[in-house]
Design a protein that fits this description.
The chain has 492 residues and is of the alpha/beta class. Helices cover 38% and strands 17% of the residues. The protein has 16 helices and 14 strands. Strands 8, 9, 10, 11, 12, 13 and 14 form a seven-stranded mixed beta sheet that branches. It is elongated and about 85 Å long. The relative contact order is 0.09.
Length: 492
């Protein structure tokens, strides 16, 4: 198969995937990799984009014609990697660290995860991979080790009848693997396998030596790409883009530059802050929830300009042009650009009524804001406010914060002292695009004149139990942080 044929095959298959809703929500880049005999997937967190590399040497493993033709085999690689994009945990560096700690071979994890995501794809796409129709597999017998039996069982997609005693255990493990909806659910199964079959590492090495497995598997390449930008750039050197552009080719290398020498830093912190910031004790931050909400909130920093139709392949098809054979305008594309860095402050009410869920939600939201500051989407300050009738407490810390600073935010003040803090940080607020104020709505301050200031009151809880309109021209009150962020996106 010539490269041009492979490129057209990928384009056609991609169109089918788009039509059948078999691609991830995020942008995707697909390219042909020169002198590469497999395929791999990776996810670039910084650009929020998937990449799939299909090798121009993928047909070298073919030893049989197969009933469905060589094109089916070639596209099976694309389907396999697309299933990784949809179903595999994106942070494979974390997985690799765990495997190293537990002394579990990465290649074993790769086999388990391949079995899991191929099953999910068969269910979703109603399509078999049929690897066994094209590739040579190890001969199996009563003397075969468990790893070889598992490999053959996966390659045959569970379609195998065998009276081999050890195959019964392999079948049981395979069934457990298919029940896993998430990558990390494989971890305890991997530990049990290694305990039962401690010789697995040597068996995997022999499979690789015999040419049935690559040294570490396609996901090991993913770990390398995620761990080293130079490795990713090297991967692109002799790759030809077919769908989209590589995140390392279209990335603005200067986006993170900050003119630190001319930047003025403000500090409006009061001398005392023991009721709003506990230097000695740490408190819970729901990083799991925050991580899920970060991609949602990222929409705030994107600006849609216009929609166009073009001949270059994207993830969206112009159905009208498709039906009218307008192949020069077959694909739809949203032309977007990142807005300039936003100036955003976060003010947190640290009064005692914020204790429990309210302050926990505030810490979670602060974590989200801080992650965007780390990636240069925004600049601004965290402003903590509290105190009592005898002493006003305020603390300002410039974003991005040290991650553990967020764990020290507390709500032990007798009052919120919003007016005093707003007056004190007036310059910060006036110069910001937005200053979000997280409160529980139980504000004891007198009404504050915030007209003309870019303040946005926010409350997570029962909307009926607060009256933010008394203090803020713009405000949101919702039952959950997830709902609040969704409404915030629509309002900004």
């Amino acid at each position: 198969m010539h490269k041009e044929q492979l490129i057209q095959l990928i384009k056609n298959e991609h169109i089918t995937m788009v039509i059948n809703d078999l691609i991830p929500y995020e942008p995707i880049h697909i390219s042909i990799k020169k002198n590469f005999d497999t395929a791999c997937w990776s996810f670039n967190e910084k650009s929020n984009k998937h990449s799939i590399y299909v090798g121009d040497k993928i047909l070298e493993k073919v030893v049989k014609k197969g009933k469905k033709g060589i094109e089916y085999y070639a596209t099976s690689y694309l389907h396999h990697e697309m299933s990784h994009a949809l179903h595999t945990l994106r942070d494979l560096k974390f997985v690799n660290e765990w495997l190293n700690k537990e002394k579990i071979p990465f290649n074993l994890f790769n086999l388990f995860e391949d079995a899991r995501i191929e099953y999910l794809w068969r269910v979703k796409a109603d399509r078999l991979f049929n690897w066994a129709d094209y590739e040579e597999l190890p001969e199996i017998s009563e003397d075969s080790n468990a790893t070889n039996l598992l490999f053959v069982y996966i390659q045959k997609e569970g379609k195998i009848r065998s009276d081999i005693e050890k195959m019964k255990r392999v079948r049981e493990y395979y069934s457990e693997i298919l029940k896993c909806s998430e990558t990390i659910e494989l971890f305890p199964i991997l530990k049990r396998w290694i305990e039962e079959f401690p010789e697995t590492k040597e068996d995997l090495e022999q499979l690789a030596k015999d040419g049935y497995l690559s040294k570490d598997g396609d996901l090991a390449t993913t770990v390398e790409l995620q761990s080293s930008e130079s490795s990713a750039e090297k991967m692109d050197e002799d790759s030809e883009d077919v769908i989209g552009k590589s995140p390392y080719k279209d990335e603005d290398k200067d986006i993170d530059l900050v003119e630190e020498l001319t930047e003025i830093e403000y500090d409006f912190s009061t001398k005392y802050h023991e009721s709003i910031f506990d230097e000695y004790n740490s408190y819970e931050v729901d990083k799991s929830k925050a991580t899920k909400l970060i991609p949602v909130m990222q929409k705030i920093f994107k600006e849609k300009k216009k929609k166009i139709s073009q001949s270059n392949a994207t993830n969206r098809i112009n159905t009208k042009n498709f039906l009218n054979s307008r192949y020069d305008k077959l694909y739809k594309k949203k032309v977007v650009e990142t807005k300039g860095k936003k100036k955003i402050n976060l003010m947190i009410d640290c009064s005692g009524s914020m204790g429990g869920a309210p302050i926990k939600n505030a810490r979670t939201f602060c974590y989200i804001i801080n992650e965007f500051a780390k990636k240069s989407y925004l600049e601004g300050y965290l402003i903590l406010t509290g105190g009592d009738s005898s002493r006003h407490q305020c603390m300002t810390i410039k974003f991005p914060l040290k991650s553990n600073d967020i764990e020290h935010i507390i709500a032990n003040s007798g009052a919120e002292c919003l007016k005093g803090t707003i007056d004190m940080t007036y310059k910060l607020i006036k110069e910001s695009d937005w200053t979000f104020v997280m409160t529980d709505g139980n504000i004891t301050d007198n009404a504050i004149n915030t007209k003309g200031l870019p303040l946005f009151g926010m409350y997570v809880g029962d909307p009926e139990s607060c009256n933010l309109s008394k203090w803020f021209n713009k405000y949101i009150a919702r039952e959950s942080l997830e709902e609040l962020i969704q409404v915030l996106i629509n309002k900004l």
